[in-house]
Amino acid sequence: MSRTVGSSGPKTLAAIREAGLQLIYKDGYEAMSLRQLATRVGLQPGSLYNHIANKQDLLFDLIHNHMVALLARIEIDLQGIEDPLEALKAFTAFHLTYHIERKREVFIGSAELRSLTPKNRKIIVGLRRKYEDRLCDILERGVARKQFALEDIRVSAYAILAMLTGICTWYNPKGPMDRDTLIRVHTGLVLDGVTPSR
Amino acid sequence: MSRTVGSSGPKTLAAIREAGLQLIYKDGYEAMSLRQLATRVGLQPGSLYNHIANKQDLLFDLIHNHMVALLARIEIDLQGIEDPLEALKAFTAFHLTYHIERKREVFIGSAELRSLTPKNRKIIVGLRRKYEDRLCDILERGVARKQFALEDIRVSAYAILAMLTGICTWYNPKGPMDRDTLIRVHTGLVLDGVTPSR
DNA sequence: CAATTAAATGAACGTATGTTTGTTTTTATA
DNA sequence: TATAAAAACAAACATACGTTCATTTAATTG
Q1: What domains can you pick out in chain A, each with its CATH number?
Q2: Which residue places its CA closest to the C1' of nucleotide C20?
Q3: B52 CA vs D4 C1’ separation (Å)
Q4: Residue of A nearest to B163 (CA)
Q5: Chain B residues within an 8 Å CB radius of A115
Q6: Which of the residues A179, B75, B83, B150 has the least number of beta carbons within 10 Å of its own beta carbon?
Q7: Does residue A198 register a pLDDT over 50?
Q8: Tens of pLDDT, residues A96-143
Q9: CB nearest A170 (choices: B158, B160, B166)
């Protein structure tokens, strides 16, 4: 046999990406074999190379796509919001929504940083930094206006991000808690931790 | 050659554990080969099996030891503290201290859960749950006494744990921030997020 | 519709992996 | 001090991995 009936490049690539996402999320990059991946897509192992350069490139593409989408969408959600408090609320809501919607990408994006080539890792870390900076900006402006009281901007930003991101490791959309409640509870935690009320 | 001069069982096992900790922390469980491990300890690959049952067992032992130590030490630090606010402060300080001191064990303990056999994973998840419950107890008692105001105990506990644990992924003890400052900043964040002041 | 490109196949390559075995020598035990 | 146990070695096993290659056939293009 050879080229199969109905085969189309873009469709196969999309299937490879989706299967890769599933397998890396479940087992990790190192634990996923290309034979496993090929089987799930319905291909022979070698056929993968018609669509990806190699295993490492697949991982990088998945993470890179995710980071670019993340940065694009936070810009949209923050556009036009001047007040730091409102911006922080918007940031929290966006971050939680995105991390629930794209749970797997987010998880892989941090858990598999170590599996990236140094060169590839550098690129991704740079993009992550841009996202962190977006939150730091908000906190800084809030402190400047005396709306927030924070001893160390970057440490606070990391703490907030860690808290919000940590949620995606346990949140189950089919569980008892719906998305809005989740957002409300965590927005409360973030705002209380930031306001100079006490 | 054969048995080498000065060789002793317990010492070699300790060396294997330490090297395993280093390698798994740096590269991940799947990425670490037993040949790499043996080289670092100064052994032939096969000799490892005089001390460990197999690769999976080494991972489980490392994580299990860590969890048992964690549970033992939190009990000591919370002993005799009645006031929920004080208990929460003590919990935060302990958690941060332990997670800085035993950064590698903590990281492996959550990042490599997926690499455990289902049976082994069940045991570890059970121990983690016990630790989470310790924090839930404190929060619950605080809410009962109206010292804390929280909508959902377990979600709040997860949020706090995520925030505090996230720190160990970026904290550098040789960086500009010392341990006490770190604890002070984060205790502030946790307490503000929990108190009914607003 | 002919020519070219794209996408699959099956087989193989070289290498690395976790683990087992038989043997040897040192350490511990009785 | 004789004997048993422990801890190392060297060599090998079976298997799995990522990747390449020549080939075939379907889809696309001029």
Answers
A1: 9-52 (1.10.10.60), 55-194 (1.10.357.10)
A2: B46
A3: 22
A4: A163
A5: 28, 31
A6: B75
A7: no
A8: 999 999 999 999 999 999 999 999 999 999 999 999 999 999 999 999
A9: B158
